[in-house]
Amino acid sequence: MIELNKLLKQIQNINLGRFSKINKAYVIGDLHGDLNKFLLFLKSINIIISSSFPINYDSYKRTINEMKIDVINNIKFNDLSLLNNICIVQLGDIIDGHNTCDNKIKGYINNDIAIYAIINEIIEKFKNCYNCHFILIAGNHDIENIFDIYGIDNKVNGAICNTYDKYSYWAQYILNYDEVDAYDKINIVRNKLVKRRDYLQNDFDILHNMYFMVSINDQTIFSHTVFYKNVLKRLSYIKGLSIDSKNLIEYLNGIFKYCMNKIKECADGNKIDCEVFDNIINDLFKIVSTRSNINNKIRDEKDVVNISNNGHHLFVGHEIHNEFKKIKHNMFNFYVYYIDIGISKSLYDKNTLTNYYYVVIDYYDKKVSIHKCSDRNCIDF
Fold first, then answer.
1. Are the C-beta atoms of 114 and 97 separated by less than 8 Å?
2. For residue range 133-145, what is the model confidence (pLDDT) as tens digits?
């Protein structure tokens, strides 16, 4: 069984989710394969100057190397080496669009692996500046696809419309508008799923940049509304783990890094060890799949804790709303921000079809601002 202290020593050279001396953080919600709006976001925060990606670009019709070249040829970056003490935080669910048999988005093309390719390029450029990070928070779609929890064969079998089992929508999410009813849809789904899995596991180094939850300047950012009691309860079922809330961030990220390292090891056939690995991954997946059904107030304030001790904000993804929710917590003196609206809401919600949102945390001036953007401009919200 996994020994937590031994695990942490093995990955002690990897950042386990605490970032300090950050002056400014840009936080955005779910992307779900919307390449064009992601590029607009990068332009609005001055990471890129311009993009010449065609509106109908389809990364799944390009080889991995062609796609990486496309990123270089189609994006004009600012000089990121001049940046210092900033981070971009993406709150999970980069993967999968929202085309399904009963919810087809006309003209939508799922370019999730192209988004990863662009992030990879930014990560490389950030290595040349001081204390700059692109932080990826793992969402349920990310974990499911990176670790292939349901299995490609199961998802392919569920790609047929009118198949209403737990796998059906996972396969349909990867499809473009014109592929949902294609005669060779099964082959399209399989080829896409294999390409994406292989890219995420082999070609894109996400180990050092993906986290379960993080602390930035002692303020906590994490995926879904997963408060500490829920996390600890689920993790308590994993044999061999002894976890308390004091080091929760390091523990969760340590387990997550361990699991990401295990991808290639399990491919070598260590059956017993991989059974433990699979159980841990499934527990993590259940945690990030948890939703709180919060509307305008926190249901049980005792289930919310300021994990970072002296921070004042919690930023949470994957709680779907028509607008940002900023909720003052009465028991503690801090706010909880729910920001799943990000880009994903602009895919399929008529109220936000042309808009996307992101949060800027200015740690130097001690303020938080919400930006509502269209393809023309951004305004404070």
1. no
2. 999 988 888 888 8
